Amino acid sequence: MNQFYRLYRPATAVPHRNDSTYTEITPCSALRPYIKCFWGSVGPSAGKATAGELIIPDTCMDIIFEVNHSQNSMKSRFVGINNEAFISAGSTEEKDTSSTFGIRFFAWSAAMFSQDSMMGVKNKVFDAQYHYEAIKTALEPILYEITDIHARAREAEKILLRRLDSGRHKPVLDAAIGALLARKGNIWTTSLADEVFLSTRQLERLFAEYTGVSPKQLSSLVRYQYLWHDILTEDSFHPANAVHKYGYTDQSHLLHDFKRYHTLLPAQAKDYALKKADILRESNTPPQE
């Protein structure tokens, strides 16, 4: 698990976004194998109307804290792994000052900080107390007092390092995830089970408890994320060139699979990512005097 984050960097629908309402903070080295990033608003700000945004399956799970500083109230929720894209709810204009702080776990490491199994969390949202009660209890009071996202991240790191449960570590799961990532998601469940010397049923039970999805579902999501990385980083992405690389039957199969998770075709998805990042950056840039 220690090196997985070097092999695999899942991306959102707008991975280049960095503005006052959303920025990402890399965790300390001890937490990088488990935490993709801390994220949220740079600091408190008055609410304003926002449009919904495309949320894609990123093979991560999040604890999200929404702090209303004007009313001294807070909402916290745990968002399980999802395998469906959706448009987030926008917000209407309001005068309250608020801020957001999130912790984004890799799917296979979320259970290392929880008192509960991840079974049944797919495509669901819970109050954070149902899976992360200790983290919620420790972090919520701090988020009222500390508003800078970098300072929040440092405090969250202290709590997470205390909550990291090495007793829940499963070397056989590490081996399975490692094999899955090495093949960029292009591996059958039976082959994966053979590699780690488990029966298919044992492997499926292990994945359900620790990742919330089956080995087949996680393999498919990982393959999609590797494909999305290629689309984002290659100057001239050609689906035909990726068919063999990722084990698709043909180009039609690749495009259908990508659109199933992203709702857009590759060229449209990249265009959305670039334009949306620019729009958000411009809308959150203070006017020049």
TrEMBL record:
Residues 171-272 form the HTH araC/xylS-type domain. Coiled coil: none annotated. Pfam families: DUF6597, HTH_18. Keywords: DNA-binding, Transcription, Transcription regulation. The keyword Calcium does not apply. PROSITE patterns: HTH_ARAC_FAMILY_2 (PS01124). The keyword Isomerase does not apply. InterPro entries: AraC_XylS_family_regulators, DUF6597, HTH_AraC. This is HTH araC/xylS-type domain-containing protein. It comes from Eisenbergiella tayi. The lineage of its organism: Bacteria, Bacillati, Bacillota, Clostridia, Lachnospirales.
